């Protein structure tokens, strides 16, 4: 039979409440009493019941990770698996469990978040994307639990924090590179504009064209959806149009891969006939030929910075409301 806190109290010669204070890491206890309890715990090989401790103290040592997107729209997207790996590794270092919350809709996500907050099942939340409709943030902010969003946060909140890259600046920089290389018929294959990241990347592309007085062709600004299939379909339509572009900016790795596949199916040479570049990931940079230029999304750094910020707030330490992660521009073969 497993030892209980009553057994620890008996062996240590202290009260049950003293044992409880030690287990819950409270400070109102003498060093001598603490040492007695810790020695008894070692002697009895006591393993605390995590569930029981959570129900009688400040809650579970757990954080929740949510995407605010249905699993259908994240399947096959390496960003989500890579950033989740970084988060779980950091959480393990801190001794925290990670609850991965999946749902059918953002409304379902919100209900599950609120439920777990009320049950003291989580001490913080990391959101893997930032919805353009920030009513989600407004609701969560009222509960006083720290929420770190990987993405842009426009509103002012007490408990909502942002870890992001400068998507507008990076997209404008890439579009400027097309222009400096003599390209004028520049298209953009983007993700749906339900999230700040997609809005900012498209805005950076448009701002660069306007800066250089290059007219925008509405037919060259195309929504590639959330899946590999929808990205390929849009890429084929874009590259086979009667007036095809001579350069295409892909706002994420799915769109980039779709464009490469479409160019291959249409026997278009990259970069001789069409320049393709955008946001990629290290794996695509290794397998695509020619190597894609643009930006590798720093997924690991985004995950680690999000965890660092969240655990500082959980511990009651000050933390910046917004953190900007640096990106690295790759002038690779597809841009030359």
TrEMBL record:
Example GO BP: regulation of DNA-templated transcription
UniProt keyword annotation of Disulfide bond present: no
Protein name per UniProt: Protein YcjW
PROSITE patterns, A to Z: HTH_CROC1, HTH_LACI_1, HTH_LACI_2
SUPFAM superfamilies: lambda repressor-like DNA-binding domains, Periplasmic binding protein-like I
Pfam families documented for this protein: LacI (PF00356), Peripla_BP_1 (PF00532)
Gene field: ycjW
Top-rank lineage group of the source organism: Bacteria
Origin species: Enterobacter roggenkampii
Domain HTH lacI-type span(s) in chain numbering: 3-57
Alphabetically ordered keywords of this record: DNA-binding, Transcription, Transcription regulation
Domain HTH cro/C1-type stretches: 4-47
GO MF annotations, alphabetized: DNA binding
């Amino acid at each position: 039979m497993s030892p209980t806190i009553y057994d620890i109290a008996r062996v240590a010669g202290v009260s049950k409440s003293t044992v409880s204070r030690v287990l819950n890491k409270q400070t109102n206890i003498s060093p001598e009493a603490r040492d007695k309890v810790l020695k008894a715990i070692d002697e009895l090989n006591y393993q605390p019941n995590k569930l029981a401790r959570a129900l009688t103290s400040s809650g579970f040592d757990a954080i929740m990770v949510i995407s605010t997107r249905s699993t259908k729209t994240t399947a096959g997207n390496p960003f989500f698996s890579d950033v989740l790996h970084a988060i779980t590794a950091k959480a393990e270092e801190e001794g925290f469990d990670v609850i991965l919350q999946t749902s059918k809709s953002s409304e379902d996500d919100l209900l599950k978040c609120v439920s777990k907050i009320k049950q003291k099942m989580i001490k913080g939340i990391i959101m893997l994307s930032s919805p353009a409709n920030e009513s989600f943030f407004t609701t969560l902010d009222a509960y006083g639990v720290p929420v770190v969003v990987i993405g842009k946060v426009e509103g002012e909140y007490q408990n909502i924090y942002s870890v992001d890259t400068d998507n507008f600046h990076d997209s404008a920089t890439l579009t400027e590179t097309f222009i400096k290389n003599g390209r004028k018929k520049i298209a953009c294959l983007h993700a749906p504009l339900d999230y700040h990241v997609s809005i900012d990347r498209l805005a950076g592309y448009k701002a660069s064209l306007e800066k250089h007085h290059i007219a925008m062709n509405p037919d060259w600004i195309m929504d590639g959806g959330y899946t590999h299939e929808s990205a390929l379909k849009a890429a084929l339509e874009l590259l086979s149009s009667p007036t095809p572009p001579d350069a295409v900016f892909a706002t994420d790795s799915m769109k980039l891969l779709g464009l490469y596949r479409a160019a291959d199916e249409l026997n278009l040479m990259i970069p001789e006939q069409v320049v393709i570049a955008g946001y990629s990931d290290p794996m695509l940079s290794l397998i695509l030929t020619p190597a894609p230029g643009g930006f590798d999304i720093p997924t690991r750094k985004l995950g680690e910075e999000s965890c660092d910020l969240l655990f500082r707030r959980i511990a009651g330490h000050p933390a910046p409301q917004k953190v900007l992660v640096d990106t690295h521009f790759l002038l690779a073969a597809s841009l030359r």
